[in-house]
Amino acid sequence: MEQKSTIPFWSVDAFLYFVMQRGFESQWSSELLSRTSTFIDAYILFDKVVLPERYKKNRDIKRLDPNNEIFQYVKSSALLHSDDLKKGVSIDLSLNFSNFDELESENYKWYSQHRGYLAEEDYEDLTREETISFSHLRLWQISLLNEISDLTQSTSIVPLSLQGIDSTKERKMPFHVGKLTELDDHFHETIKSVSAITGDSYTDYIKNVPPFLTLLIDQALSSEHAVEVLFQLRRDFKPLRQTGAEFSGLIKKATGLREKKDIIDEWSHSWELLHKGDFRKPQLLSRKVSSSDVSKAIVKPQSAGLSSMIQSFLDYREEVKSYNRFRIYGELYTELDGIEGSADKLKRKFSISLINVL
To answer: What is the reported pTM?
Structure first.
């Protein structure tokens, strides 16, 4: 069964601006990078990506899907909600969002993030006579996204500004997507822990930027070249999509709760071993066996020394099995570990200066 995703059109617009050739430097925020990242993640991690129909003829979208196999389009006429600001703003009244006053209190923060950057006094001047606040726009985006997700049976991927608004929609990520999030969390926690000890700021990495956007910034030679690189990244990380499909297929074929639980437990154990090993490929020679263990194994084969050596080998085999199951995650982690100067490359290659950081 094909796995589909859908993203806000804010994310599509941000990506298309990201890869557009510019003769000037643009000031960006964490939100704009997050929107770009949701597009990239959806494209790499899912079989199909659902978009509004107006993007169907876009040059870069067509380059990313030359055989018309990846993007699926939804017509405006099939939707109850407006899919373009020119058509107005509509909100699903059944949305279960937090207190509206709380959303309103964040209007400047998210409007500034939406624009890239805006001083608070300029924001006050611009919005003094506005009847529609940025809270309305966020609720509109969630309403539209929920409708498209329900209509096409897709997983919604949302940027920072739309996370945690609608509490009725529990966004369940496919297995392989959830594990990518765990890898990203582990990677950035490692950066923080090393930085805390060494005192280095680790400016090689950009805060709140997920793995695939980081890879794209590193590997692309320019904004124009980024489309070609993203197309190749989807091919290179096909095993991620296959991992998700394999896990879903096993669960679907399982005949009872116990069998399903056994599958979940086995895969979870494999992941824990890889996670514990810092996503490294297991090395038998790196295991330490003391000289006393060796002598015990030679002199007294029945002693604990032999058990220690055998156990070491058995543990190694189990770790290899786990690594092979999730090899693509280990390879991704290794690629990330070798990246340098992401912020500088973002400015030099994409003419983007990140100044409004969350």
So the answer is: 0.90
8 A C-beta contact, residue 54 and residue 250: no
pLDDT at 305: 47
Specify the 3-state DSSP secondary structure of 355: strand
Q: Exposed, middle or buried by CB within 10 Å (0-12, 13-18, 19+), for 161?
A: buried
CA distances from 25 to 80, 116, 162, 347, 351 (A): 38, 12, 27, 8, 5
Q: What amino acid occupies position 266?
A: E
Which positions ≥6 away from 180 have C-beta within 8 Å? 41, 45, 210, 211, 240, 329
Question: Taking residues 339-348, what's their average pLDDT?
Answer: 92
pLDDT one-digit tens code per residue, 37-48: 999 999 999 999
Residue 353's CB is within 10 A of a number of other CB atoms, namely 15
* Residue 156, H or E segment: strand 155-156
Domains in the chain: boundaries: 1-172, 174-288+317-352
